[in-house]
Every structure is written in structure tokens, then in C-alpha cells.
Amino acid sequence: MINESIFREYDIRGIVGDDLNEQSIKLLGYYLGLETIKRCKIESPYIAVGYDARTHSVEMFEYLTSGFNEAGCQVLGMGMVATGVNYFATYQEFDGIKPNASVMITGSHNPSEYNGFKMTVDNKPFFGLDITALGKTIVQNKDKQIPTNNEYKEIDAISLYVDYMIKEFSHLKGMKDKLFLDCGNGVADTVLTQILDALELNYEAVYTQPDGTFPNHHPDPSVEENIQDVYKALEGDAHYGFAYDGDADRIAFLTKKYNVKGDIMALLFAKTMTNPVIVGEVKCTQIMYDIINESGGKAVMYKTGHSNLKVKLKEINADMAAEVSGHIFFNDRYFGFDDAIYATLRLLELVYNGMDIDKEIEDLPQTYSTEEIKVYTTEEEKFILMDKVKELLADVPSDFPKVIDVIDVDGVRVIFEDGWGLVRASNTTPVLVTRFESTIEAKAKLYETKLNDLIQRAKNELSQTTV
Questions:
Q1: Alpha-carbon Rg of the chain, whole angstroms?
Q2: Catalytic residue check, 5
Q3: 8, 13, 109, 435: which is the annotated catalytic residue?
Q4: Residue among 57, 108, 112, 307 flagged as catalytic
Q5: CB-CB neighbours of 220 under 10 Å
């Protein structure tokens, strides 16, 4: 039995042993391999594969390699790497060989029993309907047997990546600001401290040893309880703090005063660009959109999700894209993918060039916003519940705040007179994600209360129809 729900909007993710096992992973390699051959129009394409620190990642690499080999593809194995290194490898040559596709085996910030796959073909994300179709094909052929064949060519993507970063950011050499870095026992330090040492930077790094059991804290830096070590360091002599998720494609950046979210990072970077084009997700603060648009740039609101934003970035040739959670995509001077290691160096560059991060943030208009608030439901119900919320928004109660507009690019972003509220179905977990913002603190709470009441009403009505 193969659980079709593991084939998600922008990657494949499930519990190892249940959803992801030898049979399902071999079939994934086989049918993804056939699809790569079809898309690249190459008889035997090269597929670069890396993996994170999870205890089952090496075994999953072997299963996936068997599938690719059976399909007629050639696997380039790069071992344990950060996701940014995996993406970076597809833009490089290894002994004259340039990868045609890539797979990163990672559970990202999910609990240790999870793992998954992030995929690109011809430097484009393989996601959305492509993943759905792939999942259906695998389910339809669930009994097909794939022989074991673990042969692959080893490549050294890490050395190329480290050398590239040292060269690109050589001007930061000897920077005196004290840095504190929490690698969360993920894969950030497969490259991070090599780069910092070569640049002779002043830093302290903790939990650098990759360990897929994550013994110190969960590898999700968007959750406050997971970055307490960073806060403590900033109470001392550290000037700036950084933390990374399990596969190091997502960053947390903190000063002594602020936890700087991804949308504010994007705004800071936009200030250094001429007429920047910036893609944000539906969770980004309205301040980001307003200031960029009013300053001669262009800010585009789009769907949440690393694959969605990468595609939109390339489609409109934007300078960068950002998610509130810390996925930062640089097309300016880089390749357009999310890479927390590269983002770290670009943030340090802002400081090196004289930007006072705290002052820039303090000069922004005052708003009151919530963190992401999760409404728990089920994988089967979340999209049905979302549709019901949209339906109820068309006929809201008389005491509901005045609705100016409803943006439905991803869930619903309800625009009120003094702010907005967001409700969207997560594509990776069985929850609805909500967020609220206003220029008036009491209004932010009001929007939160009223939209949550609407979600509860939607839940109640759905439960009555299923009784």
C-alpha cells in the first residue's frame, strides 16, 4: 500500500517505514528517472543526489539510486550536503559532466521519523501537478519490482560550493562583529564553518555535528523555543545570531533587538537594489509590499512554498523572493534558489556595508502582527475546510469587520480597513495556517478572533454534514 497523500505540493514527504519504504522509493526513482529522460530528451541523463543527516537518508539514497539505474539514468552522489549545495551542483560541471536533474533527500524541519525528496529537472522545480501525476503513476504500478543496483559516480559538490562562497565574499574577510550560529544538528555545517574560517570571521557555532535524531532541539528555527540558545548568546557579547533548519535552506536571523523575519529581510535587501523586483508570499507583511512599490520597485504577492516562489522568481526575472519563515531566494548575483548559507553571507554583507539593521527596522511603520497560528485538522479535511471558509466569507455575519478585498492566490488573504488576516491550508502538514496584521493592535486581535470564529463555524458545518 502506497499512501498517495505523501505526494505534496512542492515535495514528497512521509514517515519512513510506513509511507516511505524500499518499494515506494525504488518506484519513485524509476518513474522520476523516466520523466527526466522524457523532459531532458536525453537517453541517459545525470541526476545529482544528496541527502541530509537523518538516520534513514543513506538507505533511502540506495533505494532511489536503484530506481534511477533501472530507468537508465546515471546517478551523481554527493553524500551528505545542505540543500543549497544540492541545488548549486546542478549549475556546475564535474569532470565535464553537468547534472540534468537533482534530488535532495530531506525531511527538512519535520520530526526525525520523517523524510522526503525535493526535486528539480533542468534547474526547474518538479512540483505541484507534476508530483501529483508521478504519485498516481507510482500507485498504479505499486507491484512493479525494481532490482537493487546501487552504482553511482561520486562527485565533490562541497568543495566547489565552499570555494565559490569564499571568492564571492572575500571582502568580508576579518569582519569583527561577533556571530553566534545554531546549526541545530542539521547539515548546515557540512560547509558553514569552513567558509567562516576561511573568511577569518569572529563566531561561535553550536550543535554543528549532523545528527538526525536532533538531540538538542527540533530543527525548525521559526519556532521560538528552538532558538533559545541564540537569544542567550545575544544577551552576551554576540552581535548577530543565525539558526538553520534541518537541511539548511531556511534561516533565522536575529539582532540584539529583533528576530528579523524573511519578509523584513527582503525589505532590507531591496533597499540596496535599484528598482528591485521582489516576490513575496501571502504571509508577508503589507509593509514590505507598500514600501517596495512606493520606492520605485515592484513587489509581487504569490503562493507560499519554495517551489512556487522559485518558479515565479524565474518567470518574472525578479531579483529575489522571500517567505516569512526564512526561505530567501536570490536571483541577484546568485542562481535563484533558497540557500540559508548564502543568505547568511548576504546578511553579513549588509552589516559590512554599513547598514544599521536595528535602525532600519525601527524606522518602519508600526504594525502589530501575529506569528503563524496553526488550526489543526486532518490531511483529508484541510482543503475541504478551506473551501468552506471561502464560502462563508461570501456571506459574513453583521458583526464581522468590513471586508475591503479577498485575495485568493493561496488560501484567502482578507483585506480589512486597517490590516489583513490570512487563512490557508498548509501543503506539508495537516493544519490551516493563519496570520493577522494591523496598524492597530486591538484590530489585529479582532481580525484574529473573527476569522477564527469563521473557521470554527466552517468546522461545525462540515461535521454536521458528515454525521
A1: 22
A2: no
A3: 13
A4: 108
A5: 22
